[in-house]
Structures are given as C-alpha cells and as structure tokens.
Amino acid sequence: MQNISKELSFFSQICTDRCKGSCCDPWWGIIAYTIVKDQGFSNLNDFKAETIKGINDRAQRIRQNYVTNEACPRHLFNLPERYNIAVRDIKINGNKLTIDILAMFAFRCLFLSKNKACAIHPALMNGAEIRPPHCGFMGSLNARPDEKGYCRIIHSALNSANNDMAIQSAIEIERGASERHYREGHQTSEKAADVIIDRLKGYCRKYAAHLLPVEKQIMPGRNEPCYCGSRKKYKRCHGK
After folding, report:
1. Cys-Cys with 105: which of 29, 86, 128, 223 at CB 3.0–4.6 Å?
2. pLDDT > 70: percent of the chain
3. pLDDT-based confidence at residue 223 (cuts at 50, 70, 90)
4. CA of 140: how far to CAs of 23, 124, 152, in Å?
C-alpha cells in the first residue's frame, strides 16, 4: 500500500506542479451525437433553430453533470467560452438527412486559479476527493488512448521511466492541441450552427441538390437594373 501511495503521490505531483492545467485550461467537454432531418432543408430557419438548441442543450447537460461531490454541490463551469463543432459524416436516404456531429465545448473551470492550481485536487486537499467522476477518472493509470480517463501526460510519465523530456513533450503536445481547438472554435452556438449548415449545403449541392431550399428571387423595382446582369432596367428586360 505504501508503494501505491507513493506512486499516486508522484502522478498527483505531475498533475499539480508540471501539467498546471493543460487539460483543464480550458476544460474540453466532448459529445458525439446525430441530427436527423426528414425533409431536407425545407425550412432552413427552423433547422438552424433546432441545431442551435441541440448545441446549447448538450453544453448545458455537461455543465449540470459537473458539480462537486459535496453536501451543497457547486458547478465547475459557467457557459462555454468556445464551441468547436465538426460534421463527421453525412448520410442521405431519399429526403432524409442523417448528420453525425462531434461537439467540443471549451469551459473555464471555476476552481482553477490564476497560477493554474486546482483548488479541489485531492493532492491539495489532504486526499479528499470532491471532484466530479470524470475529473477523478482523468489521469487513470490503467486507461489507454481513446479510453475514458486517458491522459497523454500521465501515460507518458508511466511509460517513460520518469523521463523528464518525454513528460515535457507530452505536456506541450496537449497544450498545442488545446490551443488549436480553441482558435478554431466559435464564441457562440449560433456561429457553430452556421458551420454545420454551410457544411451540409456544400454536401447537398454536390450530392443531393433536391434537398436544398428553394431560395426566392428578390425582384428589383421596375426602374432598377435587371437581376440577370443585362444592365437594362428590369421593366425593359425580365419585367416585361
């Protein structure tokens, strides 16, 4: 038990003193989900509203699930600072669209201090664990890549015989990935929804033009230039 305690203390030291919030500043909430649209883009405004609601609902779901394990639970996050949305796959069956989405939300943890110390980390609370389950799983010594709780930095420390350069390299990779995702993200769910819609429009133009909305042609006034580009007045061209 003493060896296990020393081992856990070593990895906690890496998390609190070396990592300094690489996976918590910001903290990324990731959800994969599917959007199903039965009638293509028959009503683009409604589809955008539904998409925005879906993004906001999932961000709120993450926020509600991440509270401290106390008698009076406290939220770890406010609203996301960035919405990073990717369309992973699109399938078409008749007029039915199935869109696979990967949503990444950059949250700012309210318990991470300016000097990147976690105020609720067990290493700083005499072993007390009040973090949400995912925070406790993060850095699991048994987790493998793409498994819940996997941490590149802890994994590097575990498999590199405490090689300082390997650990530092893992920290820099983690920070670089987080910074890239943050730059590519959007400040609002509305802008994130536009990314999904633009991606779908481009896909449908190429593979299923019949699913695109029919855009109404805005007719110019009788004395304005015709929309066809002829440079004639509308009344003397297509307005006859």
Report:
1. 29
2. 79
3. confident
4. 14, 18, 10
Number of CB atoms found within 10 A of residue 51's CB: 24
Is residue 226 within 8 A of residue 238, CB to CB? The reply is yes
CA angle, corner 200, sides to 197 and 201, nearest 5?
A: 85
- Answer yes or no: are the C-beta atoms of 77 and 110 closer than 8 Å: yes
Residue 3 has pLDDT above 50, yes or no: no
Sheet holding 27-37, edge to edge: 27-37, 96-107, 82-93
Give the tens place of pLDDT for each residue, 29-71.
889 999 988 876 667 788 889 999 999 999 999 999 999 999 9
Length of the chain: 240
| Residue 94, burial from CB neighbour count under 10 angstroms (0-12, 13-18, 19+) | exposed
CB 199 within 8 A of CB 98: no
Going by C-beta distance under 8 Å and a sequence separation of 6 or more, which residues neighbour residue 69?
129, 130, 131, 132
First to last CA, the chain: 92
In our burial notation (b when 16+ CB lie closer than 10 A, e otherwise), range 179-192 reads: eebeeebbeebeeb
